[in-house]
Amino acid sequence: MWRLGLALIVLALLVYPRNPRTQQRADTSRTSVSTTNVRLAAQQVEPSRERARSATLAPAIASPIQGVKAYQLHDSFNEIHHGHRHEAIDIMEPAGTPVRAVVDGTIQKLFLSKAGGNTIYEFDGPGTYCYYYAHLDHYVDGLHQGMRVFRGEVIGYVGSTGDASPAAPHLHFAIYVLGPERRWWKGTAIDPYPVLERSLTLGSRSSSVPIYLILEMLHAAG
């Protein structure tokens, strides 16, 4: 008899659904966990999306330091330096290393500041972007405001002026999106790291094409 009773209990559990309230609590719990996972995933993806947006904002540029490689760069845009967000990239190089214009443009302002030391503000041709070079030891001879410069042209030299440490000379490089007023001291900073990284990667790929073709020609001739 007890076996029959046990069988009926098992049958009831299999046939009848669980208590709706219990089911609802379980569904709510699963939904909560799922929502939390989505939020965490979004938080992890957001920095990558932000870097991608920055990379596509500015056009490809030349490296301000000739020969620097993408793996040598460090993204410090969101780091706190001297009490405020860095909003730039520091490229560590020996004092006196030539600094080059990253685009064809105009030297809009040469400025000596307490923080940046000897600085250069270069506008691109359309006046859409401002490229900022700071902590320079000195400018190239003859450089002046309003001067037209060309991509890859030497405009200054790495140093430690301003608040940079004399033991760690470097180029402080920033990119700003200019507003309609096109003021050299005012713009929206974008992360130069992905812009430089993309530009260096594209540059290395394009420079390898002629070498590859030459090697193929030599191989065919042999």
Could you characterize what this model shows?
- The chain is α+β, with helices and mostly antiparallel strands and 222 residues long.
- The chain has a domain of 142 residues: Glucose Permease (Domain IIA).
- Helices cover 37% and strands 27% of the residues.
- Strands 3, 4, 5, 6, 7, 8, 9, 10 and 11 form a 9-stranded antiparallel beta sheet that branches. The chain has a two-stranded antiparallel sheet with strand order 1-2.
- β5 and β6 form a beta hairpin.
- It is globular and about 35 Å long.
CATH class of the domain at 70-211: Mainly Beta
Alpha-carbon Rg, integer: 29 Å
- Which consecutive residue ranges, at least 5 long each, have pLDDT under 50? 10-17, 31-38, 40-45, 206-221
Residue share in helices?
25-40%
C-alpha geometry: globular
The largest sheet is: 9 strands, antiparallel
- H/E element string? HHEEEEEEEEEEEH
Query: CATH homologous superfamily of the domain at 70-211, by name?
Result: Glucose Permease (Domain IIA)
Structural class: alpha+beta
Instruction: Supply the CATH architecture of the domain at 70-211.
Output: Distorted Sandwich
Strand proportion, as a percent range, falls in 25-35%
Q: Tell me the CATH topology of the domain at 70-211.
A: Glucose Permease (Domain IIA)
For the secondary structure, the number of strands is 11
Tally of separate helices: 3
Distance between the terminal alpha carbons, to the nearest Å?
96 Å
Mean pLDDT: 78
